[in-house]
Structure formats: structure tokens, C-alpha cells
UniProtKB/TrEMBL annotation:
Keywords: Calcium, Metal-binding, Repeat. Residues 1-24, 25-60, 61-96 form the EF-hand domain. PANTHER family: CALCYPHOSIN, CALCYPHOSINE LIKE. InterPro entries: Ca-bind, EF-hand-dom_pair, EF_Hand_1_Ca_BS, EF_hand_dom. It comes from Oikopleura dioica. Pfam families: EF-hand_6, EF-hand_7. GO terms for molecular function: calcium ion binding. This is EF-hand domain-containing protein. PROSITE patterns: EF_HAND_1, EF_HAND_2.
Amino acid sequence: MDDNGDKKLDKYEFGKGFREFGCELTKEEVAELFTIFDRNGSGFVDFEDMLCTLRQPMRQCRKNLVLMAFQKFDKDNTGKITISDLRGVYTAKHHPKFISGKMTEDEVFGEFLQTFTQSTKPVKEVKWEEFFNYYHGISCSIDLDVYFDVMMRQAWKL
């Protein structure tokens, strides 16, 4: 659908994509769907918008586990995890790049935080929504709640 390769869809590409897949929609229907898919109101639908709109809602028991993990890090209850929040909860001392001297502890923490975002730039914090979206994506690939539960509890020592 992304004809110009800019990794996002404008209204024209969005509507054209539906037509190419055999969905004949009116301009009004395309506009309504575009508004739903353009979750951040940017005027474009990017890959994250597409995924977030198409995946099914996460079950409450899974949301609770993700929230528990987030709260384990968000010590000051700001709704975001920062590098300072990671100190004392996450250690960089065993990270290969820290051991080799290629990265400082803060750089290791920044790399860790980067995991949860779509940003290509270095990050110093992760908001709840980013953390949740990361685990929402993972949740979609795990069929049973019990497996998701075990994964979260073991990964975050909950």
C-alpha cells in the first residue's frame, strides 16, 4: 500500500490500498476508516497505527501484569520509566557492551528503554502507552493467558 516508500500511508494510498484488495469503499467510508487508523492525528497511517488498530484488545488479566511490570520500574509514579528509575531495578554490570567498555551504564539503560519505543533516536524515558503497546504486540502472539502470565512473571520477577 505504501507506494512512495515513506513508511506511512496518506489518504490516497490508504484508499488505493483498499481498492487494490477488492474493497470498493466510498470516499466517505475511506475518510472514516482513515480517521480511525490515524490514531495520533498526524494525517498519516504508519505501521504502528496499523498494528494497534487491527489487533484485538488485550485481556484484563494481561493488562494487569503489564501494569505490574511498569510500576516495578516507575518508582516515582510519573507514568514513565526513566534511566534513573532503572537504577536499582535493572543492572548493566553484566551487559557485554558495558563489560567491554563500549557503553556506559546510562547508555545500556538507554538501549534497554529503546526496546519499548518506535523511535530511531536515543530515548531517556518510556511512557506507559509505549510500554503497553510493546507488550500488546507480544501478547498477540501468545495464545494462552497462563503462558503470558509465566513469561511476564519470570521476565520481571513479579
